[in-house]
Design brief:
The complex is a heterodimer of chains A (about 220) and B (about 325). Chain A is an all-alpha fold and about 220 residues long. Chain A has nine helices and no strands. Chain A is elongated. Chain B has about 325 residues and is of the alpha/beta class. Chain B folds into two domains: about 220 residues, 3-Layer(aba) Sandwich (Rossmann fold), CATH 3.40.50; about 80 residues, ACT domain (Alpha-Beta Plaits). In chain B, about 35% of the residues lie in helices and about 30% in strands. Chain B has eleven helices and 14 strands. In chain B, the strands form three sheets. In chain B, strands 6-7-8-3-9-10 form a six-stranded mixed sheet, with helices on both faces. In chain B, strands 2-1-4-5 form a four-stranded antiparallel sheet, covered by helices on one side. Chain B has a four-stranded antiparallel sheet with strand order 12-13-11-14. In chain B, helix 3 packs parallel to helix 5 and helix 4 packs across helix 5. Chain B is elongated, with a radius of gyration of 23 Å. Classes of the chains: A mainly alpha (about 220), B alpha/beta (about 325). Chains A and B meet through helix 6 and helix 7 of A and helix 2 and helix 3 of B. Bound molecules: adenosine-5'-triphosphate (ATP) and magnesium ion (MG). Adenosine-5'-triphosphate binds next to strand 2 and helix 1 of chain B. Magnesium ion (MG) binds next to helix 1 of chain B. Chain A: Its main location: membrane. Chain A: It is a multi-pass membrane protein. Chain A: It is found in: Cell membrane. Chain A: This is Metal ABC transporter permease. Chain A: Keywords: Cell membrane, Membrane, Transmembrane, Transmembrane helix, Transport.
Chain lengths: ~220, ~325
């Protein structure tokens, strides 16, 4: 296979990966952030202790976390069909990707929020801040470097998941590597894909680190 | 200004507060002293209900906080400032934005916020540092930001939990001077917790000494100094305890330079030997405490000293 043949394939696959990962990142943040906040706020000793709700939430998150992505992806096919009407294609892949990444990200959010000192939270309470104000003006901004770091890890994980999800019809770089590299023995394409994935992950990690560092004012 | 009655608080088996009554008058600086674990922080945190007492009531500025629902409580808390041992500043915000925080919570408009923040930073001697990040400031400056933030809601009361414990002596001094100034200029009532006798000596009008979740002794410093057997007096003046039998301990307020002892020696048939003593500068003026042994006709000499307004304690 020549470069001229490979280039459009690589280009298209990279774009598909970007679409899958991009959309699932958006949805992961949309669902994962509130769940992570809930895990902290509803905890015993949290802003609004509701230990039972928090336990239920914790169990759901753990179930999500303990399923290998490939199993989860297949197990939720009926759900995927319900949401997007189909089980193949990029849109269909976003569903299992999101479902897989939400519990993962929620735990990272929880960890980042727990890093915020209880003294600043209490100071805010002493100033008469409502719970919502404490979450929005204290917990989230103070945890921002940790949240960005968590998001970076999540995006990298999503790239990994997307390679698997690609094989059920989402396309992308993983799918490309499997179809051409594995099934058609196009070693060169395989190598180029691997290099491309490494570079993309590296770029995302560096970007995430840089943003987290910029946001970190503690030292 | 602060009236707490019958406060009880326990954490499982640990009884942190065991029937505490606290009365802080308007415009005074009230110190709470006690060893680690005595329940000082718990008491302070009960005053703004960061900790809900198991039993008892808390009234601040005429409002019974223990009777309020959570929304109303948030409102009431805005009139109670608090400063913290480790400052508790938000590292994600600039100095100015930290001071603005309580104003945002209160829903003050931006322009008014900016005006207030500039005013408050000037008041605590940090004018022009509003754009800095907390980590760029020294400990003393951070505490000044904490104080400015605590004052933003124009509070009637300021609570301070070991606000100077993380600071060196000179910085402690400057923070205490600031608190004293705010007390004098704004009429701010201050309830502060400390384990440093120096803090009590230099700023407090009244104190409570806590041990084991109870207040052992409380009242104005001047009053306690005049109370025989007061723990506060013993804590302030470094004399060996217990006093040797027969020795006399004299506590004199007012003008410590007055030569009462030589008067006694001149007027009466007694010999005085000095066992120990010191003079301490308290917020209300200098106070001296002297331990002596009297030989000869002690009784009329002691009566003379009492007449002169000294507190005379004879150890048996
Ligand atoms: N959140 C809590 N959970 C369990 N026990 C607590 C809690 N807070 C305080 N205590 C206990 O209550 C008692 C009083 O604590 P408190 O913090 O009021 O003491 P303190 O006088 O402020 O001591 P220090 O000078 O060390 O700050 C201690 O025995 C402490 O262990
Ligand atoms: Mg304490």
């Amino acid at each position: 296979m020549t470069w001229d043949e490979m280039a459009p394939l690589l280009w298209e696959s990279t774009w598909q990966t970007a679409l899958m990962v991009g959309w699932s990142t958006v949805f992961t943040v949309l669902f994962g952030l509130p769940i992570g906040v809930a895990l902290v706020v509803f905890d015993r000793g949290g802003l609004r202790p509701l230990p039972v709700l928090k336990s239920v939430l914790g169990v759901i998150v753990n179930v999500g976390r303990s399923l290998p992505f490939i199993v989860l992806m297949i197990a939720i096919i009926p759900f995927t069909r319900l949401v997007v009407g189909t089980t193949i294609g990029t849109a269909a892949v976003v569903v299992p990707l999101t479902v897989g990444a939400v519990p993962f990200f929620a735990r990272l959010v929880e960890t980042a929020l727990r890093e915020v000192g209880s003294d600043v939270v209490q100071a805010a309470q002493a100033m008469g801040a409502s719970r919502t104000a404490i979450v929005r003006k204290v917990l989230l901004p103070e945890a921002m470097p940790g949240l960005v770091a968590g998001l970076t890890v999540t995006v990298v994980a999503l790239i990994g998941y997307s390679a698997m999800a690609g094989t059920i019809g989402g396309g992308g770089l993983g799918d490309l590597a499997v179809r051409y590299g594995y099934q058609r023995f196009e070693t060169l394409l395989m190598i180029v894909t691997v290099v491309l994935l490494v570079v993309i992950v590296q770029l995302i990690q560096s970007l995430g680190d840089a943003v987290a560092r910029r946001l970190s004012h503690s030292k | 200004m602060i009236q707490a009655s019958g406060l009880h608080k326990s954490y499982g088996e640990t009884v942190a507060l065991d029937g505490v009554d606290l009365h802080v008058r308007e415009g005074e600086i009230y110190g709470v002293l006690g060893r680690s674990g005595a329940g000082k922080s718990t008491l302070l945190r009960c005053v703004n209900l960061l900790e809900r007492p198991g039993r008892g009531t808390v009234t601040v500025a005429g409002q019974e906080l223990t009777a309020l629902r959570s929304g109303e409580l948030n409102h009431a808390r805005r009139r109670i400032g608090m400063i913290h041992q480790h400052f508790a500043l938000l590292s994600s915000r600039t100095v100015a934005a930290n001071v603005a925080f309580p104003l945002e919570v209160m829903g003050v408009a931006r322009a008014e916020r900016e005006r207030r923040v500039a005013e408050l930073l000037d008041l605590v001697g940090l004018g022009g540092r509003g754009g800095d990040r907390p980590h760029q400031l020294s400990g003393g400056q951070k505490q000044r930001v904490g104080i400015a933030r605590a004052l933003a809601g124009d509070p009637a009361v300021l609570l301070s939990d070991e606000a100077t414990s993380a600071l060196d002596p000179a910085t402690t001094r400057s923070i205490l001077d600031l608190l004293k100034r705010l007390n004098a200029e704004l009429g701010l009532t201050i309830l502060l917790i400390t384990h440093e006798m120096n803090v009590v000596k230099s700023v407090c009008d009244s104190v409570a000494i806590m041990a084991g979740g109870r207040i052992e002794e409380s009242g104005s410093i001047a009053g306690l100094i005049r109370t025989p057997g007061s723990r506060l007096t013993r804590e302030i003046f470094p004399l060996p305890e217990p006093a040797p039998a027969g020795s006399v301990t004299l506590t004199f307020t007012g003008d410590p330079q007055r030569p009462v002892v030589s008067e006694v020696v001149r007027e009466f048939d007694v010999e005085v030997s000095i066992l120990g003593g010191s003079i301490e500068d308290l917020a209300g003026g200098a106070v001296g405490r002297l331990r002596v042994a009297l030989t000869g006709e002690a009784a009329p000499a002691l009566a003379y000293l009492r007449e002169r307004g000294l507190l005379v304690e004879v150890a048996r």
